[in-house]
Amino acid sequence: MLRFALAALRARPGSFAGLATALLLAVAVITLFGSLIATAIAGGGDSRLAMIGGAFGEIAMVMGLFVVANTLGFSVRRQARDVALLRTSGATPAQARRLIRCQVLLVALLVSPPAWVLGSWGARVFLTELVARGLAPAGAGVPWSPFPMLIGTAATVLVGVGATKLAARRTVRGRPSEAMAQTAAEQGRLGWVRGIAGVLVLAGAGVLCMVTARQPVDKAAQAALLGALLLMVAVGLLGPLLARFAIVLLGLPLRLAGSRHLGDAGGWLAADNLRGHAHRLSSAVVPIALLVGLSTTFAAITGTLQKVAPPGAYAESDIWLRGVELAMLAGFGAVATVNTLVSLTAARRREYALLTLIGATRRQLLRMLGAEAALTAMAGVLLGLGVAAPVSMAFAAAATDSLRPSIPLETYGPLILGVVMLTAMTILLTGMKATSEPAVSAAATA
Fold first, then answer.
1. Among 86, 261, 395, 412, which has the highest number of CB atoms less than 10 A from its own CB?
2. pLDDT per position as a tens digit, 302-331
3. 2 neighbors 95 (Cβ within 8 angstroms)
4. Which carries the bigger pLDDT value, residue 443 or residue 11?
């Protein structure tokens, strides 16, 4: 299967670009913060530096591996037809899973060397800033050690290979003929096991929010972040259901506009398309919700701490650290969002071609894409705020005895605007390229 995996990488390198980016980012950030921990150990165990490296590394690992798992799931779905063809040629489900695991392993090994360089360089830049701000001992330097690099690659490969079992389950199960039929019509049903798991995680996050509200401020901040991550897992599990509900709610104005302006049905097409493909929409919405939800939680925690801390207690260096954490989360979320939206939009070339062949104009298609971009961004922002609201309120209750967190608008406003613009530009630019090909050839080759 290793030979088949290598052949797939050579034949369709663009199909693995998103997965390669996610794996590179995960290996790089684990290498970066592992190098900081190695620096603390080499310098006699500096507690502040070790604490920063550990706290940042924990968040970076969770986020990086979440992005890898999310990107891998969609990468496997894009290969569903190829896997089904292999199974019709005699490949077993175990061999199909082995093929996908080999692909992940090969891509991880290919991106590891540049990721090591990037992570080591980032560790040196970050340490220089820490020293300049008095957060690390003067003269501290990153020692050369292979362990952060090897740990970064090993942890990423383990999570990636482990995630293939879940990601490939729908693709390899059942008869080959049934698998071929499923690739032709993607199913957006929410399985009962996944639904029960989502409800249980959601209930656990609710309990954690109640506990957070009764904790000291320092412990409440960590509990709030953990609660936000749990809610993100629940959103991922219940994504198709939540996405369908969001589109029914948010798509109503577009459907009404389409009824009034019968000459251009872009809004109507967008609302019906997204509602009918809730599973596809959930893949696009979850990264946006991840970006908005965790960034909003960080902004709420930082703003509330600044509000309640005595003058001078919340130092400028601490504010800078929170800003770095927020920028890191935004970077992870942006990579996941762009990867997913580009893959989803480009994979619909045949759909655009068929719509053109039955009479849709390119202007209608672009209007449909614009409306879809707006709906997708709004749904992601809505779910992200739903993730951030309970944990932010719980933290505010712990810090101020009030359910109202303090969020600096000068930080939060550009963040939300940036999410909307990123979503719109990614979908529209990818859609413009996907609809530029002649409809007949696109329908035949897609």
1. 395
2. 888 888 776 666 677 777 887 787 778 778
3. no
4. 11
What pLDDT does 184 receive? 41
Q: What does the alpha-carbon distance between residue 211 and residue 137 come to, in Å, rounded to a whole number?
A: 37
Tokens in use for 264? 């251009």
- H or E segment at 335? helix 316-346
Is there a contact between 177 and 206 (Cβ–Cβ < 8 Å)? no
Per the listing, tokens 């951030």 go with 388
Q: Extract the tokens encoding 51.
A: 């604490």
- How many residues would you count in the chain? 446
Residue recorded with tokens 């919405």: 285
Contact 368, 254 (CB under 8 A): no
**Residue 404, both tokens:** 């109202």
For residue 352, give both structure tokens.
Answer: 């655009």
Token pair of 302, please?
A: 């930082």
Which burial class, exposed, middle or buried, applies to 262 when counting CB atoms under 10 A from its CB (0-12, 13-18, 19+)?
exposed
Residue 378: predicted pLDDT: 85
Higher pLDDT, 425 or 17: 425
* Residue-level pLDDT at 222: 80
The SS3 call for residue 299 is helix
pLDDT category of residue 186 using cuts at 50, 70 and 90: very low
Burial class of 414 by CB neighbour count within 10 A (0 to 12, 13 to 18, 19+) = exposed
User: What distance in Å separates the CA atoms of residue 269 and residue 319, rounded to the nearest whole number?
Assistant: 45
- Rounded to the nearest 10°, the torsion over CA 85, 86, 90, 93 is -110
CB-neighbour burial class of residue 359 (10 A; exposed 0-12, middle 13-18, buried 19+): exposed
Q: Where does the pLDDT of residue 440 fall: very low under 50, low under 70, confident under 90, or very high at 90 and above?
A: low
User: Which pair of structure tokens corresponds to residue 276?
Assistant: 């009918």
Q: How far is CA 200 from the centre of its chain?
A: 22
More confident residue, 216 or 71: 216
CA distance 346 to 78: 11
Residue 446 and residue 435: Cα distance in Å, rounded?
12
